[in-house]
Design a protein that fits this description.
It is found in: Cytoplasm. InterPro entries: PurM-like_C_dom, PurM-like_C_sf, PurM-like_N, PurM-like_N_sf, PurM_cligase. Keywords: ATP-binding, Cytoplasm, Ligase, Nucleotide-binding, Purine biosynthesis. With about 325 residues, the chain is an alpha+beta fold. It folds into two domains: about 160 residues, 60s Ribosomal Protein L30, Chain: A (2-Layer Sandwich); about 160 residues, Phosphoribosyl-aminoimidazole Synthetase, Chain A, domain 2 (Alpha-Beta Complex). Helices cover about 30% and strands about 25% of the residues. It has a six-stranded mixed β-sheet. Helix 1 runs parallel beside helix 4 and helix 3 runs parallel beside helix 4. The longest helix is centred in the middle third of the chain and has 18 residues.
């Protein structure tokens, strides 16, 4: 008699992975969680909102996963997955509430899947949200053995009258950049083309470890910042770099004028430029050391930077808002 296992799907390994995953997911549970892992759906109680708007975002990790496969290090890319989603919804002032993940593979290894979820769990704790469910799909013949894909979905909430949508941005407002932790999770197809030796030394670190540094999650410092200052707009600097992402915070026709010498560019980006990538292309692909940008009144810029620094963040006044055709000017 032909079995599911003979077709390439090991149900017992799936049960084992779920058991391991539950240990990581349960530690993220927050007050609003009212369902248990293993239910058909996750449930979350909104709590004390007057007129809540739900804000959602979904994303994956992309080809950064290929580096994780080669290094056989799986416990950081889950952080990336959460970061890509919660940082996006944060741009509109939303507090992340809960997260769901999706993992697909050719042949399931329970320990590897659990390591992926361990990273997701850590990301959720950094983002202050609960991991309330997910899906693990074993798909033999569709994915090669040893390959995994991971994607996620985050939901947050914000009071309707507190949504940050760029409508209050004016000419002369300051743009404050907050440092990234490295490359984050974008541009890795280009990274892998440029850097093939993952075991090479790079300024005293293993190159593979440098490339696998997880994406910084900005939720907690930004939430504290919103309590003290009027934030007019925010941008998560992901794929498309400066040119695509910073102007996304503008509702009107404004240009972001950025001083490229106003912040520290990490050595990994400088190294990639020595391998033949133009500066303009780098700024159009990578975060270049600035992972998140907030727009504030110019008079508040110094205090905003001091506040971020008191929370352990590196922050810089990187430019200002200018009226005119929507876009970005790098000076």
């Amino acid at each position: 008699m032909t079995t599911y296992k003979e077709a390439g799907v090991n149900i017992e390994e799936g049960y084992k992975s779920v058991k391991l995953m539950k240990n990581y997911a349960s530690r993220t549970f927050t007050k609003g969680v009212i369902s248990d892992l293993g239910s058909f759906a996750g449930m979350f109680e909104l709590g004390k909102y007057k007129n809540p708007v739900l804000v959602s975002g979904t994303d994956g990790v992309g080809t950064k996963l290929a580096i994780a496969f080669k290094k056989r290090k799986y416990d950081t890319v889950g952080i990336d997955c959460v970061a890509m989603c919660v940082n996006d919804i944060l741009c509109h002032g939303a507090k992340p509430l809960f997260f769901l993940d999706y993992i697909a593979c050719g042949k399931l290894e329970a320990e590897v899947a659990a390591d992926l979820v361990k990273g997701v769990s850590e990301g959720c704790m950094q983002g202050g949200c609960a991991l309330i469910g997910g899906e693990t799909a074993e798909m033999p013949g569709f994915y090669s053995e040893g390959e995994y894909d991971i994607a996620g979905f985050a939901v947050g909430a914000v009071e309707k009258d507190e949504i940050i949508d760029g409508s209050k941005i004016k000419e002369g407002n300051a743009l404050i950049g907050i440092a990234s932790s490295g490359i984050h999770s974008n541009g890795y197809s280009l990274v892998r083309k440029l850097i093939t030796d993952l075991d090479q030394d790079f300024n005293g670190e293993n190159m593979g470890d440098v490339l696998l540094k997880p994406t910084k999650i900005y939720v907690k410092p930004i939430q504290k910042l919103m309590e003290k200052f009027e934030i007019k707009g925010m941008a998560h600097v992901t794929g498309g770099g400066f040119y695509e992402n910073i102007p996304r915070m503008f509702k009107g026709d404004f240009k972001a004028v950025i001083n490229k010498n106003s912040f520290n560019i990490p050595e990994i980006f400088k190294y990639m430029m020595t391998l033949g990538v133009s500066e303009e292309h780098m700024f159009n692909t990578f975060n270049m050391g600035i992972g998140f940008v907030v727009c504030v009144e110019d008079k508040d810029s110094e205090d905003v930077i001091k506040s971020l620094e008191s929370m352990g963040e590196k922050a810089y006044k990187i430019g200002y808002v200018k009226a005119g055709e929507k876009g970005l000017c790098l000076e």
